[in-house]
Fold this protein.
Amino acid sequence: MKRTIFIFLVTGLSLAGCTKHNETPEIKLDEKIPADSAGGSNAKYTGDFSNGPYGSVQGAAKIYVQNDKYVLALENIAVSNGPDLHVYLSREVQPVNFIDLGKLKSTNGNQVYAIAGEPDFLAYKYALIHCQQYNHLFGSATLK
Amino acid sequence: MKNSFVAIAVILFSEVTYAQQTPLPRINQFVDIAATLGKSEGAVAGSYVRNWRIGKKRKWEAGLGLRSTSYFGTKKDFYTAPGRLARSTTTPFIIVFAGQKTENWDTLTVQRPFVTSFNLSANFGYNFSTRLSGGFNIDLIGFSIGRKSSAILTSNGITRTEAVTKVAAFNVLLTGDNDYGSLNSEFFLKYKLSERWAVRGIYQFYFAEYKSTTIKQTAPDGTLVDRFRNKANTFGAGVSYQF
């Protein structure tokens, strides 16, 4: 009887202890970056990433207009991996007021994120790679 | 499948028949541990219960207990808690069935909630037989401790980071969204394996409450709200030791 109870308990606690791994994929992406008809860049705002206190981010963030909608392109980025990494447009370097563009698709390559509406880029002037679950900043780019 | 139903029916019928012949003890006193799981959340509870069997046949029982419940999760949404904002009426008991005023709700997404509550509980049960019983229990009053966590408050589509949310310390059952704090309740079926040991199948409904510290919701009536509630529906099992 005691053995049955022990097995029951161990099984239950094992199930309760399961955690979901939440790291970002590392496969290199090569999404198409918007370009003007001459093949040049028509970025409205650009900025280079610098490292935050909890990670490293290299590459550039650029705001484009694509089909009359704003998009954020992350170009040639390389991000140290972490749990629950998101892409933000933020009013502050350490985000308080922000727009969440979604989970970071990959730690490497070229990526494009849709931006809903027409935010004021003079106010939302930081592109961030942010660990949402632990509120840790991995990197930021000031958009100018 | 048909044979399974017949077998279960035969077992239940034989248990009920047996119960009619054997009176149950007046006092039902036991300790219990239980674990339940839901989507990205779970709970572990330990309790002591002392019930008194009532009625001539001693089939019904009721009593009090002490229960500690630890609730944990990842990225759980907590909604505006005060009953006057969450529901169309705050009348005790009626509020449980009252319409939801979702237009008043803001969402506090707590990234890593972990609450441990210590509460006095009320317990009710019915003995179908000497082996099989079922019942309901609910926390009444107590206190909670827990982990601080960052969160995101979403209000009218605007998202803001709340760096520190904390567990609401005081718990009291006032029915439905009138409640304060973190309170556990269970529906269960219990089967005795031996004189001392029993197992339970459990449906658990757990209210957990977190409070924001710096960023607050501005309600339509102009008041500032810092209380947010998550209602967790989970299923699981428990083990009881009777003494």
Observations:
- Residues 93 and 126 of chain A are 6 Å apart (CA to CA).
- The first helix of chain A runs from residue 2 to 16.
